Amino acid sequence: EVQLVESGGGLVQPGGSLRLSCAASGFTFGSHAMRWVRQAPGKGLQWVSAIGTSGAPTYYADSVKGRFTVSRDNSRNTLYLQMNSLRAEDTAVYYCAKRHDSGSHDYWGQGTLVTVSS
Amino acid sequence: EIVLTQSPATLSLSPGERATLSCRASQSISNSLAWYQQRPGQAPSLLIYDASNRATGIPARFSGSGSGTDFTLTISSLEPEDFAIYYCQQCSSWPITFGQGTRLEIK
What we know:
By secondary structure, chain A is an all-beta fold. Chain A has strands at residues 3-7, 10-12, 18-25, 34-39, 45-51, 58-60, 68-73, 78-83, 92-99, 105-108, 112-116.
């Protein structure tokens, strides 16, 4: 059974940093590209970042480019999102998702809430 | 950036009725479109990929159609568990974008 479990969310002050993790199991992690998608409270889905199977290429939404860094450790079956210079508008539930061959997302984690507030 | 516009924003129907949800892309995306269902408090789940292919385990009452710029998700006969929010997503070009969602509510 495919499982994606995010962790690392919490309350952080504006300008602060946080690192999210996504532990994967039930599939060959190193063979699949992965993505981060977020959802602000009461809002829709917004793609944040993507990473290839070996750690490259990486892609970012304009709203997080230069502040967020996606990475992965295939030996640990874990995806990461390093978030720096956090802003109030980054407040959201952050989901990791496995890329389907079609480019869609066939498995999602349960999400981890990031709240940026003073 | 490709903008996806979903309509209607809210659809009020009764169990057993047919639901038709629309997603329009700001430029052609061939068939690179997916549909997701999100129930309250849950992560999204994949329903349809490549515009018309049902994901694993998705009931046959869900179907997708369209290509280019106009896409449709049809639920042939609504079950109580189908009342949720539905999103479309394009994977034709970066950045990946989602529609704003259609809320399917019980009438």
